[in-house]
Amino acid sequence: MCAVPTDLSTSTSSDTDLAAEERALASEYAALQERGLKLDLTRGKPSPEQLDLSNGLEKALDGADLASGGADARNYGGLDGLPAARRLGADLLGVDAAEVIAGGNASLTFMYQYLLNAWLNGPLGPETAWRRETAQPRFLCVVPGYDRHFTITESLGFEMLNVRMLDSGPDMDEVERLVAGDSSIKGIWCVPKYQNPTGHTFTDDTVRRLARLGSIAGPNFRIMWDNAYAVHDLYDDPPVLLDLMECCRAEGTADSAVMFASTSKITRAGAGVAFMAASPGNLAQFRKHLGVQTIGPDKVNQLRHVNFLRDIDGIRALMRRHAAIMRPKFERVLSFLDAGLAGRAQWTRPRGGYFISVDVAPGTAREVVRLAAGAGVKLTPAGATFPYGRDPDDANIRLAPSYATLDEIDQAMPVFVIAVRLAAVRRRQHR
Amino acid sequence: MCAVPTDLSTSTSSDTDLAAEERALASEYAALQERGLKLDLTRGKPSPEQLDLSNGLEKALDGADLASGGADARNYGGLDGLPAARRLGADLLGVDAAEVIAGGNASLTFMYQYLLNAWLNGPLGPETAWRRETAQPRFLCVVPGYDRHFTITESLGFEMLNVRMLDSGPDMDEVERLVAGDSSIKGIWCVPKYQNPTGHTFTDDTVRRLARLGSIAGPNFRIMWDNAYAVHDLYDDPPVLLDLMECCRAEGTADSAVMFASTSKITRAGAGVAFMAASPGNLAQFRKHLGVQTIGPDKVNQLRHVNFLRDIDGIRALMRRHAAIMRPKFERVLSFLDAGLAGRAQWTRPRGGYFISVDVAPGTAREVVRLAAGAGVKLTPAGATFPYGRDPDDANIRLAPSYATLDEIDQAMPVFVIAVRLAAVRRRQHR
After folding, report:
1. Domain ranges (residues) in chain B
2. What confidence tier does A3 reach under pLDDT thresholds 50, 70, 90?
3. Partner A, chain B 337-396, Cβ-Cβ below 8 Å
């Protein structure tokens, strides 16, 4: 997923050939419409079967000492979360428990709170508040990327700058060039492992170069390290992500790394535990902000998770069961792409995570989504993987294989394939 | 608790009498110090015995259909919370379920988010954003009041103006006078039932006058109605709070009312469900803000609460069991005050809620807290019940009887009584 395909047709065709192809595809499309499908490949939601893997959570506190964390988990207090929950988060993120805060059910909320705090109160105190600077804060967004990151950034009034996602991670030449010349750039969003939506994992070199950004950009720059898929491997030989915090410490830029993870796609998507990790200075300031709006997180749910998951080995064992459910779905989607779109689109082959990124013929992504919807298959809106919902090439589509059943994938993917081909042919007709 | 006592000594005393009294009290105090107590009457936390009343929560999902709310409670989604949870909140707040959002474990977070949104994005859209006005926003704070309200207000940079809490509620003459003359006043904090810390409930007349404020102050004014103790009665003949939302609708000021409640002091202090209620216009704008930072609340915990509490009758039955634990503690504290401080201090006699408010001799509250701490009894810091921690009279102390056992109250209250008397005598000596 390095470059957008410029022309995905394998041969030039005459107007007559194109018209014939369009007619054939339109006829196939019409036949698919007849089926009256109602399928959804939009959001990266775990399937009910995956959620069932964690039904043991409801028994995890049977006979448990609710004060085993040192304080009564049911009562007020404990802004940082339970010590045992923080250890779990530390294992997930590969940092020390002292660097971790365990929170509520959404790491997205931590991300919003961290950036709001940086803008409003300053990441390291009032004199560092981004809102006090004369220039509007700007933020680097790796594209294609995660729409909810972009929504947070936009809602806080930061200008978003696109940086291409390469197979190795963000285009670091471009990142370094931008950061060196513009002190209003306050940070970069990263999903370092099984990136959303490409599924690529940042290489060691990329992580090392990211760790050096703090030296280039200064002490007020932040890497928003959303490690949402830290343990979400589909295969037994997962890529190993270099430890950003360690690299940053070596560079003297530890304040630049702010890390996030959660159990949302480990246990329960809407009722898990979120984690944030950062340097002592970052955490000290963040706690002040957090303590204004809450007395503490739901420690009972944290204890439920600690008792159920136990430790990183428990998490890995659970993730293998997720993989057994997810892997066939990913492979099925890929087999349809291979069979139906070879040479007509480009896509990634993720080894984990929740998404497959497809680049269709430039200028056709919106039409593909429209056509698929017209045949009862809901796709993530085209453009969603770009800031402001604007894909400059109108080419990227994010597929989410997790929620659908294999049978639903078998029904939905032919629609997608025909939609991609039909939109491409029509585009070429109108050139 | 209408007025601060100006001189709480019942008779004038000569210097010799005062010195003798001081010596006697100092000796009693020293004897209490000998006991090596370590007691805490600070925060309004439920006791473990109260928390035990809701241990059934852990069984509430046994055999439950986790998708009974129309969607799988375990998965993402449902920004407004489960419909059944919203109905529970509606019952608590006396409004329609359509006016309610059910959230996470802290109504404090809703309060912060609502005010942040009003300041950042505008309560009814961008053109109404408080930050766009030239004057710094100001907020009315009923005193004595709840420190965490003041902390939120201060953190957002609003100036806080004190308004006295009378037996009837806020001093409405003063409120109306201030609001009429100052468009930078954006709202008022209210704990309308069993106010924190006085325990008074707003009268019908006060609620009606509050409902009219929107007409005086304009469409951008907000009543932050923190009904934290809506069902927290100690006795069977509770005061009835008039329905603010209904009054506001009658006045055409429905947008001015924003209501909050939670199950924190019904089920689990740190792991309950929070509710917010507001007009459709308020909610529409608030949802946009909320949806930036979360995909939805913990719906599993909401379902757990719905199944455990059932409805308002279930809540009331549970609250009677809380009252059976709390009432003797309140009465015990009051008996010590009656016996030891009659004529020397003034205090409230709450019929519910979590606090007793004591006004000691002006200029001595800080010293009382210091003396009590010196004898091993931790009290809420003097000044905490006022914005910026500044009690202009240095007179108010908030007692929290809930967490201590009756035995601990029996040990702690003599310390409090002696501390109040000793501080008062010394103050008179140094006049």
Report:
1. 15-50+316-429, 68-315
2. very low
3. none
Topology of domain B15-50+316-429 in CATH is: Aspartate Aminotransferase, domain 1 (3.90.1150)
CB-based contact, A287 to chain B, within 8 Å: no
- In CATH terms, B68-315 corresponds, of 3.40.50.970, 3.40.640.10, 1.20.140.10, 3.40.50.1820, to 3.40.640.10
Question: Structure pTM?
Answer: 0.95
When pLDDT is cut at 50, 70 and 90, the band that residue A4 belongs to is: very low
Q: Is B152 close to A292, i.e. CB distance below 8 A?
A: yes
Say yes or no: do domains B15-50+316-429 and B68-315 share a fold: no
Q: CB–CB of B271 and A301 under 8 A?
A: yes
From A365's Cα to the closest Cα of chain B, the distance in A is: 25
Q: Classify A65-310 by CATH class.
A: alpha beta
Asked if the C-beta of A24 comes within 8 angstroms of chain B's C-beta atoms, the answer is: no
* Angle at B330 (CA atoms; ends B327, B334), nearest 5 degrees: 135
Instruction: Give A241→chain B minimum CA distance, Å.
Output: 27
Per the CB < 8 Å rule, is B106 touching A293? yes
Residues B249-273 have pLDDT tens digits of 999 999 999 999 999 999 999 999 9
Q: Is B305 on the interface with A (CB under 8 A)?
A: no
